Amino acid sequence: MARVCFTCSHMYRGGAWCEDCGGEAIPLELLSPPWVDCPNCDSMWCTLHSAHAFECECPAVEEWK
User: Mean per-residue pLDDT for 33-49?
Assistant: First the structure.
């Protein structure tokens, strides 16, 4: 099950605690996809990683639902 850490925004597959920082993590299917329209181009912007969606480590949108 894919998860995201609330502390460091690390994405991983594993238990309830982040493998990097030890922060609490939540399953992706409980969250909405983090992408919004980028104000500077036609791409999507990831609000978790402050990067364009094609540059961030987020999984495909299908894993969020």
Answer: 88
